[in-house]
TrEMBL record:
InterPro entries in the record: ARM-type_fold (IPR016024), FANCD2 (IPR029448)
Identification of the protein by name: Fanconi anemia group D2 protein
Region Disordered, residue ranges: 797-838, 859-882, 1417-1463
Family indicated by similarity: Belongs to the Fanconi anemia protein FANCD2 family.
Length: 1463
């Protein structure tokens, strides 16, 4: 039998692999639905590792991998490898990856299998066990080791580049769990490339980069990668990018991160696409929007890293153009502000600074707030807090910005809570008691109630809290308060039962109580409130503005008005206030005809009260009161005048009613004229007779010097009061009838206008004479004048709780100066209550402050200083007035009325309309273009214009006495309105400037007209001792015009875009008559004549020519012109700062920065001309006392406009000034040797002070520049070092002058400015430290030079203590502290720079300014501190070689040194 042997076939790769695994305890071949059988990994892995290494020649790892590859060809078998063998066990593939011999091949196998499952994108959302691709990636996570990490990472990146989005994000997110630290560089580079190719994986890449443990270099690379994606990333991915960047911020890269976020982040208008698809937002941001997510990302980053906040604030400071600011800046400020702490204050200050500079504008906040209610909602309180902060600022621009924010927030947030918070915040500001804050808050409330009154009615109960603060408000704010409540009441209706009627009822109840209150403080509130209510409910336009249900009742207005008038009928000041308020009301509102008729009937009694009938222009009988005889003054109409103003009989009568009614005469006349104009279309033809009617006043015999002395006190008071009431009557005449000539009136012909203007000029002559007469009488008979207008909080006489009735006022006024003698010595309260009204109304002076401080006041000092000096008045004039207290003497009609100015706040004010008389002349057909006899009239008006410009531009006159302050506030109007009224006067200013110059040039005493002849035509009585000083009147007019021009140019509102036409007109008016285009030939392209820059240059050239002309005969006037030229430059700089662009040209205003160097050059030459010119004879005779303030101003202009201030200071301080200081004689030849006639012993003190101030200011600029040039080129650093050394040399030279100039004032200035200069020098130590390596020698030399000055200052301080020179000793402590800090800063600098051996500390010898050793007991009568003689100072080490730049010495040599160690 034959048996056939069956052949044994070769085992397959799968079987071989299964056999190898079986030897290790793993069963590979199992049914497809079951996982392989696998023992525990800790036993299986070592067993398999040993098995594979048993036969190296058989290459068992390769056979196993081949079998696994064949096994994995089936997807089902592959899943068996990848799925866990049990719920708590790992997959077979994961266990095999722990075998070193198998890991590289198996990783490659799995990566090769991964692309086969890229098409499983349809499986998105399936469980992990069904997703083979994700199972493969899961095998790579958290491996204990990688045998060949580089190869694996390279292949993984290759697979990643072609993977589908779903799997790509899975792999990227798993990289931190797959790759070790050694492969991070390759991973970062791969991810960077991937970001450039696919923007959809940004979030996954950022998460991966955040989870990688990168070193500093790779982290910076990752940040760079992230920054590059800001511009291209999708909006909904931006929050993730921002979180990564903010978390990755370090001190090294935080600046770059913040800068790139600011520049590239697009913030506004980005809405979540999902929310947009749902159409729920309709274009507006919501809490789930992308903007909200971005803000959350920024908020979380800023909250936990102050470094980010500081970097942003620092970055924001460097932005210096409005166009460079973005919306993200506003939000970052808000987020930093919300964090609180110290950075909150920094954010506030920076925001305020940016707003004031105009860099952050309302547009940015509008983009943040408008249409983003839900987004801003979470930050509402931050916005409100910022608004509160801005509203509390002093600057008008900041408060205007706060006004916008409050309005925008109110309009955007309609919920009750937000609006209650906002209104509550405003009421808090209203009750703050700070005037500007209260006023701005009330303006905001008025704006809200005007535009949203119906919406405020539900929260009206909160607004009524304003009524709690009424007592502290002045009149303007009271009007605003009542405006608010009237708006609310009108919105709900005064006569309805709606919710707003409670506001109306409460308002009416409060006003009635106030009007009926006898206390003036409350009565004034009631008067203002009542008239505001009347204007609201009796407005003729109410029918247009409100519905029929809201129509107020006019009878209610009449009843309220009648009650108000009756409550004030028998008291003076409230009635004055009521009449003035009524006049203003009729001027600004069109009221119901019933109201006008009622007021007209009330003022119809004017003629019976104040006027008396005349027969043929004469009194029917002479009036005689005791010894005072009356006569008619100033009759312009002659015999045809039917009436006269009955002043003297009313003053002299003893009846209470007569005296009181004269006080209300001006205010009642004002109301009468207002009613007349309202009923006659602006014409005053019905009362035209009052303009020319005479005044019944005391006879001029009483003004005779001999006659005056025989009058009793009561009679003198009667004369003074008569003149006073006459003055104010004429002032109101000017106010009333100037409306007929200031603007064209329909019913007034040109002939009537001209006749009225002539009469007004004659009345102005009357006013000038009356004022100078009253001023003269008050000088020899001091008297308190009654108030003719209510001043409210600004009047000392109305500060008491009870106002004066007519009787009480008469009793007070009837007491003369003799009452002081009767009251002298009384100490009880009753006596103090009966002090005369002079004492009650006396203004606080500097003498009062001296008395409180215990300073002894001499009689001469009292005479010279007891009253403030008005504009144009010198101390010499005051002394001359005080020398003859009992004689009338000669009266200069143009002298400043000092006595009247002290009580000017009680006078009726001249309205701006009166200034239109500057355009008129009494000589309509004269051949003379300018008349000397009219100069007093124009001078009076120009002085008044100057005062009014102080109110338009308060900064132009920062210091004024109390009476001027009261007058300022009493009739201050809005500057824009004033500018519009003053604008027509520009041509008149030019006319009077040219006329005064021609008269000063002419100087001829012969004149075809004079004051006396025209004074007679105006009806002025002939008073022989009244004269006009012809020599000074033209000069005074010239000065007043220059002063007006300077104040106009300095008005900030003039530079607004709305007032640009007024600015151009002002400049156009003051242009030279000759062509000056040749002087502007250096400009390329040439300046356009219609542009502002051309007009500025023309105005400057005109004043330059004027200065050359007046310099021939008056140095003082030339100096005044120079100051005016400087104001032109200041205006140019202000305009360019407000509108200027980086290219130097602003097309909106037509002004180029190129004109600034041109103007500065011409200004410097003009200032140099004045400083180097000899004085005209008249100036030399006057001496230097009248030029005490001019020389410093000229010198400042010369220095500040020089090409190099440092070089010029060096020349003046080191070369020019020492020549004068060393002069012992006063030879004219010696004094002129330095080339500056204005520098002599009399002006040396001024020069010395100005040079110190300018050097200190220039040095501070250098220090700021030095801190900015730390990282710049070496050339820039060299220039800064050179400039600092020059400034140090100037300071040393100025201090060294004290050795040869022994005036205490000089030494005091050296100590004062010495300490300040050392303080400024200390700020530069950071710069010096960074530059010490390259410029160490120069720095050491600089400090040694500075030490020369500190020695002298130490010596001055020691001598001042010894001699008890209080002028110096008061400045010593601060200077000593500064020098001590300087000592240790120098030591620290040298120690830090390894040069500490060059500095040591020793004891000083006590030496005087000349270097002589002084015994400590030289001041025998002074107990000095022994430590003052031995100050610790830095000294030179004697062992250090001289070629090592020597050492630093501070103040004097040590005891062992004979001479200072200087180079």
């Amino acid at each position: 039998m034959v048996f056939l042997q069956r052949s044994n076939p070769q085992p397959s790769a799968v079987d071989a692999a299964a056999a190898l695994l079986a030897d290790a305890g793993c069963t590979l071949l199992v049914p497809p639905h079951l996982p392989p059988s696998l023992p525990s990994a800790p036993t299986f892995v070592p067993r398999l590792t040993r098995a594979l290494a048993a036969d190296p020649a058989a290459d068992l790892p390769a056979r196993l991998l081949a079998g696994l590859a064949a096994f994995a060809e089936s997807p089902t078998r592959l899943r068996q490898l990848l799925l866990p063998t049990s719920p708590r066990s790992q997959s077979l593939a994961r266990v095999l990856l722990s075998v070193p011999a198998l890991q590289p091949g198996l990783l490659g196998l799995l990566l090769d299998k991964l692309p086969e499952h890229f098409d499983d994108d349809a499986l998105d959302g399936v469980p992990l066990q069904d997703d083979v691709g994700r199972l493969i990636v899961a095998q790579f996570r958290w491996l204990d080791f990688l045998v060949d990490a580089d190869t694996f990472v390279t292949k993984l990146v290759e697979v990643l580049s072609v993977a589908p989005p779903r799997l790509k994000k899975e792999i990227i997110g798993s990289i931190p769990e797959i790759v070790g630290d050694q492969s991070h560089a390759a991973v970062v580079s791969a991810l960077e490339k991937l970001l450039q190719e696919d923007c959809q994986v940004v979030v996954a890449v950022l998460d991966t980069l955040s989870n990688l443990n990168l070193d500093a270099l790779l982290q910076e690379q990752a940040v760079t990668v992230a920054i590059s994606c800001i511009r291209t990333i999708h909006a909904d991915q931006m929050p993730h990018l921002l979180r990564f960047l903010l978390l990755s911020a370090t001190p090294a890269n935080v600046g770059r991160i913040i800068s790139q976020i600011r520049e590239q982040l697009k913030f506004v208008g980005v809405v979540d696409p999902r929310a947009a698809r749902s159409k729920k937002l309709k274009g507006k941001a919501s809490a789930t929007s992308t903007d909200g997510a971005i803000l959350d990302a920024l908020r979380s980053g800023l909250r936990f890293k102050n470094m980010l906040c500081e970097a942003f604030l620092k970055e924001l400071k460097l932005v210096d153009h409005a166009r460079d600011h973005k919306v993200i800046d506003v939000w970052l400020i808000m987020l930093i502000y919300a964090n609180g702490g110290a950075l909150q204050k920094s954010a506030e200050k920076i925001l305020k600074s940016k707003i004031l500079q105009g860099y952050i504008r309302e547009t940015l906040f509008h983009q943040c707030i408008h249409g983003n209610t839900e987004l801003v909602k979470d930050h509402f309180m931050s916005y409100l807090s910022v608004s509160d902060y801005l509203l509390a600022c002093k600057e008008d621009k900041a408060r205007a910005f706060a006004t916008y924010l409050f309005t925008a927030l109110f309009e955007e947030f309609s919920d009750t809570f937000s609006r209650q918070e906002l209104v509550g915040s405003l009421i808090t500001h209203i009750g703050s008691g700070i005037s500007y804050e209260v006023s701005s808050a009330l303006d905001i409330m008025i704006s809200l109630t005007s535009n949203n009154s119906e919406e405020l009615i539900p929260i009206a109960s909160h607004i009524t809290g304003i009524l709690d603060y009424l007592e502290s408000f002045h009149e303007d704010n009271l009007r605003k308060v009542y405006e608010i409540f009237c708006q609310l009441a009108l919105a709900a209706g005064f006569n309805t039962s709606s919710g707003g009627s409670s506001v109306a009822n409460e308002l009416l109840m409060v006003v009635r109580k106030q009007v009926s209150n006898p206390d003036m403080k409350y009565k004034r509130m009631g008067i203002i409130g009542a008239l505001r209510i009347v204007s609201a409910i009796a407005d003729a336009n109410a029918a247009v503005n409100y519905s029929s249900s809201q129509q107020p009742n006019c009878e209610e207005a009449l009843g309220l008005l009648n009650m108000t008038v009756n409550s004030c009928k028998f008291v003076t000041l409230p009635l004055i206030l009521l009449y003035d308020e009524l006049s203003a009301l009729f001027e600004s509102n069109v009221l119901h005809s019933a109201i006008i008729e009622w007021v007209g009937e009330h003022v119809a009694e004017f003629d019976t009260l104040f006027l008396a009938d005349l027969e043929d222009g004469q009194l029917s009988e002479k009036y005689l009161c005791e010894s005072i005889e009356g006569e008619l003054w100033m009759n312009l109409d002659g015999n045809i005048s039917p009436v006269c103003v009955n002043i003297l009989p009313l003053v002299s009568t003893s009846q209470q009613r007569s005296q009181a009614c004269l006080q209300i005469l001006p205010s009642q006349f004002l109301l009468l004229t207002t009613i007349e104009r309202s009923g006659s279309e602006g014409s005053l033809g019905g009362i035209n007779a009052l303009l020319g009617c005479p005044l019944h006043l005391p006879s001029t015999k009483n003004l005779d010097e001999s006659r005056w002395g025989s009058l009793s006190a009561l009679e003198k008071k009667t004369v003074c009061h008569s003149l006073y009431f006459a003055i104010n009557w004429i002032r109101e005449l000017l106010n009333a009838f100037s409306t007929q000539v200031a603007a064209r009136v329909v019913n007034v012909s040109q002939r009537v206008r001209d006749e009225t203007a002539v009469k007004l000029l004659k009345r102005l002559r009357n006013l000038i004479l009356l004022e100078i007469l009253l001023n003269t009488l008050l000088k020899i008979y001091p008297l308190s004048l009654p108030e003719l207008r209510y001043l409210g909080n600004y009047s000392g006489s109305t500060s008491s709780s009870k106002f004066n009735t007519g009787k009480k006022m008469e009793e007070d006024n009837m007491e003369g100066p003799s009452s002081n003698k009767r009251q002298k010595g009384r100490k009880d309260k009753a006596a103090s209550d009966k002090l005369n009204s002079d004492e009650k109304l006396k203004q606080s002076t500097i003498l009062d402050a001296f008395k409180r401080a215990g300073v002894t006041i001499t009689q001469e000092t009292k005479k010279a200083s007891s009253r403030p000096l008005p504009s144009g008045m010198t101390s010499k004039d005051v002394e001359s007035e005080a020398n003859n207290p009992g004689e009338l003497g000669h009266i200069d009609l143009m002298a400043a009325p000092v006595q009247l100015d002290m009580q000017r706040f009680k006078f009726r004010t001249l309205h701006v309309n009166c200034l239109s008389l500057l355009k008129y002349s009494e000589f309509q057909d004269s051949t003379y273009p300018y008349h000397e006899s009219e100069l007093p009239l124009y001078l009076y008006l120009l002085r008044d214009l100057n005062n009014k410009l102080d109110h338009v531009n308060p900064s132009s006159k920062p210091f004024f006495n109390n009476s001027q302050a009261k007058s300022t506030r009493a009739h201050c109007q809005k500057s824009t309105e004033d500018l519009s009224k003053i604008q027509p006067l520009f041509s008149s200013l030019r006319k009077h400037l040219d006329g005064s110059i021609s008269m000063m040039k002419d100087r001829s005493d012969s004149s075809p007209d004079n004051w006396s002849s025209h004074s007679d035509s105006a009806g002025n009585p002939h008073i022989p001792y009244v004269m006009v000083s012809k020599s000074s009147i033209a000069t005074s007019v010239f000065k007043e015009v220059l002063g007006c021009y300077r104040k106009l140019l300095g008005t900030p509102d003039l530079l607004n875009q709305a007032n640009m036409s007024a600015l151009k007109e002002l400049l156009q008016t003051f242009q030279p008559t000759e062509n000056f285009d040749d002087d502007l030939s250096e400009f390329r392209p040439p300046l356009v004549p219609s542009n502002v820059d051309y007009l500025y240059c023309g105005a400057f050239k005109m004043f330059e020519a004027i200065m050359d002309a007046v310099c021939l005969f008056s140095h003082i006037l030339a100096s005044d012109v120079l100051i005016t030229m400087q104001s032109i430059l200041n205006s140019i700089i202000m305009l360019l700062e407000k509108y200027g662009e980086s290219n130097g040209k602003n097309m909106h205003v037509g002004c180029s920065k190129e004109i600034i160097p041109f103007v500065k050059k011409q200004l410097r030459l003009s200032a140099h001309k004045l400083l180097t010119s000899d004085f005209p004879n008249e100036d030399t005779e006057n001496g230097w006392q009248s030029k005490g303030d001019l020389i410093p101003r000229i010198l400042q202009i010369y220095l500040r406009n020089s090409e190099s201030t440092s070089v010029l200071l060096d020349e003046l301080a080191c070369s020019v000034l020492p020549q004068v200081a060393s002069l012992k004689s006063k030879s004219t030849t010696q004094e002129l040797s330095h080339g500056f006639p204005t520098l002599c012993s009399s002006t040396f003190h001024s020069w010395y002070r100005v040079l110190h101030e300018e050097n200190l200011g220039n040095f501070n600029k250098m220090v700021k520049q030095a801190l900015k040039t730390t990282s710049q080129s070496g050339v820039a650093v060299e220039n800064v070092m050179d400039d600092i050394f020059k400034s140090v040399k100037v300071f040393v030279s100025l201090t060294n002058i004290c050795k040869i100039h022994e005036k205490v004032a000089m030494h005091a200035m050296a100590v004062k400015y010495g300490g300040r200069f050392i303080d400024a020098f200390l700020k530069a130590f950071n710069f010096l430290e960074t530059q010490f390596g390259q410029h160490g020698g120069d720095i050491v030399k600089m400090i040694k030079e500075l030490q020369k000055a500190t020695r002298i200052i130490q010596t001055i301080c020691a001598e001042a203590k010894g001699y008890k020179r209080t002028m110096i000793t008061s400045k010593i402590p601060a200077t000593k502290r500064s020098m001590e800090r300087f000592l240790f800063q120098v030591k620290a600098l040298l120690e830090h720079c390894s040069n500490v051996e060059r500095c040591w500390i020793g004891n000083l010898k006590h030496k005087d300014l000349h270097g002589h050793v002084v015994s400590s007991q030289v001041y025998g009568d002074v107990d000095g501190d022994p430590n003052d003689a031995e100050q610790e100072q830095m000294e030179t080490d004697p062992e250090t070689p001289a070629d090592e730049n020597d050492n630093i010495v501070d103040d004097d040599e040590t005891e062992n040194e004979a001479t200072p160690l200087d180079d």
